[in-house]
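Example 3.
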Amino acid sequence: MTWSIYLGVVVQGVLTGLVYGLMALGLSVIFGVVRVVNFAHGEFAVVAMYAAFLLFRSLGLDPLIAFLPIAAAFFVVGFALQATLINAFVGRSEHEQFILLVGVAIVILNGLLMLFGPDAQPANLPYAFDSYAIGPLFIDKVRIYSAVAALAIAAVLFAFFRYTAIGTAIRACADNLTGAAVVGLNVKRLYAVTFGIGLACVGAAGALMVTIADAAPNLGPAYTLLAFIIVIVGGLGSMAGALVGGVLIGVSEALAGFIIQPSMKSMFSFALLIAVLVLRPQGLLGRRA
Amino acid sequence: MLRKSTPSRRRVLAGAAAAATVVAVPAVVRAQAKAIKLAVLLPRSGYLAPAGQSCHRGALIAPQVLADFGYAVELVHVDIESNPDVARTQCERVINDGVKGVIGAFDSASTLAMAQVCEQRQVPLVVNIGAAPQLTEQGYKFLVRNFPTGGQLVTNGLRLIKDLIDATRVAPRTAVFLHANDTFGTAQRQAMDKLFPAAGLPFRLLESIAYDPKAQDLSVEVTKIRALNPDLMLVVTRAADAIKLVRDMVRQHFEPMGMVSPGSPGLYDEEFYQALGPLADYPIYNIPWANPKGHMSQALEAAFKPANPRFRFAVECFNVGFTFEALLVAADGFKRAGTSNGPELMQAIRATNIADHIMIGPPIKFDAKGQNTGIPSAAVQNRNRTPTVVLPADVATMTPVLPMPGWQKRT
């Protein structure tokens, strides 16, 4: 085997990992500020996949464009969900938050089953089978497009939190909740904005994911678990950590699948998770509590 | 003057016997006239849903067709969500609700979970599809399987590969075996490890690769196979994973001489054709197939068409046919036993001998372990997005095409 094959595997892992990272970014943002773990995260990603699938099938709107309106719609849903349902659970014990969001996940999963049935729905994009030949490497077009879009969205998000007034206020809430309230920030509204941003991230990631994977209701729990592994490896609450964790998981799964056995690649995600929990419990880029 | 008669002991016994006959005969007649209540447990959601739904379509039309052939069944349809734990609990529930027989479950792992429940409760389980050998090797007394074991499938499949090579005069030198890592796929791998060395095929098996059928894509798997550069790909796919496999083969410009399944689903699901279009053509799968000339097959096809206008019997006949046959076995056993009492019904089912049935092959019969050992395979190739029998020559409707045309040459 030549180096080019290994390079191809690593590139595939990086590209897939970036989309995983964008999905996990939403989870990390919500937890980092609101301190609520969204156990319905994967299910929301699957809703976005179906939204992108429907927009493509009915209007011919490419998922690489459709992610923008989908992210906007998810922001509204997230804002409303936090304002009406989740705000009441902020500060309550973890098991109550857990039950609430698992309940939301079950409702979404079964709703999708009722609406679309259990079968996987492929978008069948015209370029779904295309790839770029770069020397000896074949790299899927869909992966490159999705990864570039994921990087762009993450960059916009970083800029929003660093350079806008609302972003700064949200970071203030995350750093010192009491201080933020004392200076007059509307914490509940900022929480709702944060939840909206988190869901917008997952909405965009889900829409991009439909270019790589077929939409199916049963993907939800697997995506939730994957997002958890990524944010724990990267550091819960760390935005950069989510992207780094996504890439690390993507590459380690790809290499493990290639070198050892494809059926064992998920095992390496969990091995990485255990190693991080033992050696660096706060995650690779997380801050010690 | 009336003669006073005293009943003798002999006359009393005779009268009692006559009375018992009068009481008993209508009971048997009544039992025969009533329908047997059967539960059909299938993976209608989850990763096996396409095949489970296909089997379900067979179960839905079965009562009407069975009635035309003189059998009465009442069915309870249950989704086991592609999950053996759900299969076990749902099996218990339906037995508690009074079903007298269980049919299922397409997936070997789920069927094994159900077999334990049926054995404890002494309720017959007729396996429609499920190839793991242990189903009929663990001594279950309340289970019969009208489906080949993994070993039988691979034996028949490898024999047909040899016939394919002879018929097409190709000369593959190497192959890679790619299989799902679930119960079925692992059983196929074990059968392959055991049977391939003695099969006398003219190519070397470079490597056997296991993959997760629930994986989002198979790009790493295809990269690994491409690095080995085999002439043939032998595959054991499950459902949607077959689509992902072809998709990644096309993306990576990987064009082996042929893609042959020694006996597995996935390559002939309607989803496969819809998702891949012309790219779905030319894989070959060596599996049992419905007899297009059979009296009962034609009746089943006639019932299938109006009930499922969006689906083609030619595509679904494997899942629909075996599910129908499982129901036929249970209904026929009930008809002969005249009772739905578990042990007596099971005894009748084990004595099954049905000559007129759906799939190609001799009459349905079970050996001492409850296995039908006489189910042959045919080589079926996708041609113009339709499963087409290409071997054996006497039942073939087209000749096999090997090597398969390159991906870019498809229209």
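Chain A has one domain: 9-218. Chain A touches chain B at residues 1, 5, 8-9, 12, 16, 113, 117-120, 122, 124, 128-131, 133, 138, 140, 212-214, 216-219, 222, 253-254, 257-258, 261-263, 265-266 (CB under 8 Å).
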